[in-house]
Amino acid sequence: MKLYSSISCIILAAAFVFTGCNTAETAVLEEPKADFTQVIPTLEAITTDWNKGDLDEFITVYDSAATFMLPKGPIGVNEMKGYYQEAFTETGTPTSTLSFDSLEMRPLGNSHALVTGRYILTNQNSTEQSGRYTLVFEHSAKGWRILHDHSN
């Protein structure tokens, strides 16, 4: 019985030592918090690209794996660019100017954000088309990038 009790004490002591050492080594490091003050300015900056007809530059705010929601379902960035070219340009020039309002940003963890707002496309004859959108942004080494765009 003494041998069993001694072995139990040794195992218990080893468990405490192992747990104490293991906890320090496997502690999860918290991800640094991104600068959320740059989310809205990033979005606002692309209006200049759209309004001057630079769709290639406008698209750079989207992550290469981003999705864009259409009624038929999500599409990728290349398909989205084609959609924009067909729906909103004539001979490479935008048929309307783009602006945003009602922008709201909510952090999702340390490096993601949810942005909601309203887009306004104003034609040359001052006719407006507008809709609401939800964007999911991620902060990366390249800055804030859109991962998903659901606009209506």
UniProtKB/TrEMBL annotation:
Protein name listed in UniProt: Nuclear transport factor 2 family protein
Q: Which Gene3D superfamilies match?
A: 3.10.450.50
One Pfam family in the UniProt entry: DUF4440
Tell me the organism.
Pontibacter cellulosilyticus
Keywords tagged on the record? Signal
Q: Where in the numbering of this chain does the DUF4440 domain appear?
A: 44-146
Signal peptide coordinates: 1-24
The question of whether Signal is a record keyword is answered with yes
Q: Does the keyword Signal apply?
A: yes
